[in-house]
């Protein structure tokens, strides 16, 4: 077959932390497509490069791995893509092994393994500038001869060596290097040992140890991994992060809300009243807005996460938290996803991909929605302002603030308990190993941080949008149809399907102190938690509840007992009142079963918590 | 040999050489073979130089190690599969 007729396909393979993604970005620029591989939830990143004589090649950025012997869904994709066994993915024409030039030993072993696959290969020695700065000498000629593959040195963040790499890939794709039959089989321990010793021999022969080794990483580690100081620094960092997420984002969020409100009002003036106006204003604009409004918080959170990741701190955070979270049956790496879930469970659930083990990943995803996401804040604020007196306790703390803190604590505590129970009930005894590389610290590259931020924001919006839009329309339809009869006296939602469901479900919710108005509000509240606030405004016929929260609060305080208010708060700590999260969970776990397990256990906990709260409060005279 | 021990028993500052990867009697059969391969893939191979750099706060677990020229974090539970010979000076 003539290679020049069709587009040559290139796949990037390398260890984690080798700068593979930075190299991919340098090769392809902004021309990349992020999607999922068919049937699995592993991110598929593809881009295009142009050779010197103007032909294009497609490049696939495969998940980082130490071996083709896959241990996680990510690594399975790498293996299957390299071997050409992945459904819908043709076998790559050229493999590019990406290596951190300062950390060659493990990648040399991987290269030896990749050679068995029989595809033409190019080795890119990335971060070559750091190697040179350290005085690390690599005998490139000898290494080329030992490995039998062409070698290019690159500095992805400075775009150095990129043209040379493209030329080398092009030459390899040109069919000069022979393609052999795939001879790769999953190596056993003896084969791994043999390859490791071979890699060690090549190391000794071709690489002279650095004259000025990186001592900075060691010095930073003695502070950041210090058993006490390290934890204090981690907690301080979290505190700063939370402050940033909740205070910096507020003006931006207000701006987005205002802009969408104006857009809605404008559409209402130019479109005739009726079903289409209602669909666009109440369904689409307010529905999409309820997600879009969290974008500033998510961007700030991602900015911190990307910076810490690029700096090399995230592996340290996992190290520090492993034992603490391990007590509850969680993996150290679950720390990042759970942290993200405080802004929104959707990026949290997606971030659980960093966890190798299926079980640990499942546990993490199952408890992520228990973290108090920012969509709960409007609900908490409304109810707390309505029912909790604004008093000082112990001379310094505000009672309202304490209740808010208690709700956060209840979320965290229940997440720990639930993951403990999952571990005990579903897989007794099986402990996944915790072993991870602690990469050398690096100064984050400004441009690549911004690029990644933009990329992640885009992914979040695309995914959330694709799931949320149809759901919003369903919820809107439920709360709109059928129309109220002529001369109706109650608010329109009362006559809709949501209203009917509210009345029908009322007996179930009566034991936990909910009246039918609340039950009705729960139904549109399934779209997103904070929508319940607007829905309460609708059922109690408070005009414009968003701007008149205090008015709504006063209405609620007059209509509900304190016990009911507290039960509603308890309900919202647990209830899976967010179809978008459930949709993402279903996608990420590729399982309806586990999504339903989540729905059932969270509603169960919500009901139980609200029941206990209501009954105790009534017994104490707050009914 | 008196100067070899399981890596899980080593303390901060210990330096030495890995003499055996294996001995997973504390793990299940199938699990043991998998663990051995994972350790090998992360650079824990006979002859590799080891230094215990840091210990966690609770139960001195997990541990941060220098393995040849890279850094790796590991729980003591997995470190029990590695036998090391400590440099005499460091005992």
TrEMBL record, chain A:
Q: What is its main location?
A: membrane
Q: Which GO terms describe its molecular function?
A: ferrous iron transmembrane transporter activity; GTP binding
Q: What are the subcellular locations of this protein?
A: Cell inner membrane
Per the UniProt record, which residue ranges are transmembrane? 223-246, 258-276, 288-314, 334-355, 367-388, 394-422, 464-483, 519-543, 550-574, 594-617
- Tell me the InterPro entries matching this sequence: Fe2_transport_prot_B_C, FeoB_GTPase, G_FEOB_dom, Gate_dom, GTP-bd, P-loop_NTPase
Q: Which SUPFAM superfamilies match?
A: P-loop containing nucleoside triphosphate hydrolases
Q: What residue stretches are annotated with the FeoB-type G domain?
A: 7-175
Q: Which UniProt keywords apply?
A: Cell inner membrane, Cell membrane, GTP-binding, Ion transport, Iron, Iron transport, Membrane, Nucleotide-binding, Transmembrane, Transmembrane helix, Transport
Topology in the lipid bilayer is annotated as:
Multi-pass membrane protein
Name the GO cellular-component terms. plasma membrane
Can you say what this protein is called? Fe(2+) transporter FeoB
UniProtKB/TrEMBL annotation, chain B:
Cite a single GO MF annotation: transition metal ion binding
The protein's matches in SUPFAM superfamilies, at most eight in alphabetical order, are given as: C-terminal domain of transcriptional repressors
Ferrous iron transporter FeoA-like domain: residues covered: 5-86
Q: Name one Pfam family in it.
A: FeoA
The keyword Cell cycle is assigned to this record? no
Segments crossing the lipid bilayer = none
Under the heading InterPro entries, the entry gives:
Fe-transptr_FeoA-like, FeoA, FeoA_core_dom, Transcriptional_repressor_C
Its keywords, alphabetically, are:
Iron
Q: What is this protein called?
A: Ferrous iron transport protein A
- Name its species: Brevundimonas lenta
């Amino acid at each position: 077959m003539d290679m020049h007729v069709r587009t040559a396909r290139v796949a990037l393979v390398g260890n984690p932390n080798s700068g593979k993604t930075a190299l991919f970005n340098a090769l392809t620029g902004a021309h990349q497509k992020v999607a999922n591989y068919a049937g699995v939830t592993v991110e598929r990143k593809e881009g295009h490069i142009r050779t010197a004589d103007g032909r294009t090649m497609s490049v696939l950025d495969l998940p980082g791995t130490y071996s083709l012997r896959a241990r996680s869904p990510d690594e399975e994709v790498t293996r299957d893509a390299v071997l050409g066994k992945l459904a819908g993915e043709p076998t790559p024409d050229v493999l590019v092994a990406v290596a951190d030039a300062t950390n060659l030993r493990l990648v040399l072993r991987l290269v030896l393994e990749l050679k068995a696959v029989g595809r033409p290969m190019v080795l890119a020695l990335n971060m070559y500038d750091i190697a040179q700065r350290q005085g690390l000498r690599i005998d490139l000629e000898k290494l080329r001869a030992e490995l039998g593959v062409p070698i290019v040195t690159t500095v992805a963040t400075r775009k150095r060596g990129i043209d040379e790499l493209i030329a080398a890939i092009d030459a390899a794709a040109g069919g000069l290097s022979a393609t052999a039959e795939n001879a790769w089989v999953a190596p056993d321990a003896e084969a791994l040992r043999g390859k490791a010793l071979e890699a060690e021999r090549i190391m000794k022969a071709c690489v002279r140890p650095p004259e000025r080794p990186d001592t900075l990483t060691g010095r930073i580690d003695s502070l950041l991994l210090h058993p006490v100081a390290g934890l204090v620094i981690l907690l301080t960092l979290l505190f700063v992060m939370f402050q940033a997420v909740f205070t910096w984002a507020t003006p931006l969020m207000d701006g987005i809300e205002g802009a969408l409100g104006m857009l809605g009002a404008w559409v209402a003036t130019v479109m005739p009243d009726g079903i289409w106006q209602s669909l666009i204003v109440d369904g689409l604009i307010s529905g999409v807005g309820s997600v879009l409004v969290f974008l500033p918080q998510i961007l700030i959170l991602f900015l911190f996460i990307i910076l810490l990741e690029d700096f090399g701190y995230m592996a340290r955070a996992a190290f520090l938290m492993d034992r603490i979270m391990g007590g509850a049956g969680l993996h150290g790496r679950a720390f990042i996803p759970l942290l993200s879930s405080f802004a929104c469970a959707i990026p949290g659930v997606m971030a659980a991909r960093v966890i190798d083990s299926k079980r640990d990943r499942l546990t993490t995803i199952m408890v992520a929605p228990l973290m108090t996401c920012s969509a709960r804040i409007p609900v908490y604020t409304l109810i707390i302002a309505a029912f909790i007196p604004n008093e000082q306790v112990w001379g310094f703390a505000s009672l309202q603030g304490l209740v808010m803190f208690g709700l956060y604590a209840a979320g965290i505590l229940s997440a720990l308990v639930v993951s403990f129970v999952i571990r005990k009930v579903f897989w007794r005894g099986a402990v996944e190993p915790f072993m991870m590389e602690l990469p050398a610290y690096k100064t984050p590259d400004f441009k690549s941080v911004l690029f990644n931020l933009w990329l992640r924001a885009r992914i979040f919006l695309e995914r959330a949008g694709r799931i949320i839009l149809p759901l919003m329309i369903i919820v809107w339809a439920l709360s709109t149809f059928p129309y109220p009869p002529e001369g109706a006296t109650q608010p329109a939602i009362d006559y809709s399907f949501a209203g009917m469901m509210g009345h029908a479900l009322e007996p179930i919710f009566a034991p936990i102190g909910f009246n039918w108005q609340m039950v009705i509000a729960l139904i549109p509240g399934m779209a997103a938690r904070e929508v319940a606030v607007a829905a309460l405004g609708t059922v109690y016929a408070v005009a414009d509840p968003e701007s008149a929260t205090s008015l709504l609060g006063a209405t609620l305080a007059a209509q509900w007992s304190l016990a009911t208010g507290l039960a509603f708060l308890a309900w919202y700590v647990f209830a899976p009142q967010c179809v978008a999260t459930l949709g993402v969970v279903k996608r990420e776990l590729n399982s309806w079963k586990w999504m339903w397990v989540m729905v059932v256990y969270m509603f169960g906990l919500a009901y139980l918590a609200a029941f206990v709260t209501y009954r105790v409060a009534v017994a104490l005279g707050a009914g | 040999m008196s100067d070899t021990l399981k890596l899980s028993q080593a303390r901060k500052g210990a330096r030495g050489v890995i003499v055996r990867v294996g001995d997973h009697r504390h793990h299940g059969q199938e699990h043991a073979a998998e663990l051995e391969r994972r350790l090998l893939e992360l650079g824990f191979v006979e002859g590799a130089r080891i230094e215990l750099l840091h210990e966690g706060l609770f139960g001195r677990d997990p541990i941060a190690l220098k393995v040849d020229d890279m850094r790796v974090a590991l729980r003591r539970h997995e470190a029990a599969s590695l036998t090391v010979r400590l440099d005499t000076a460091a005992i």
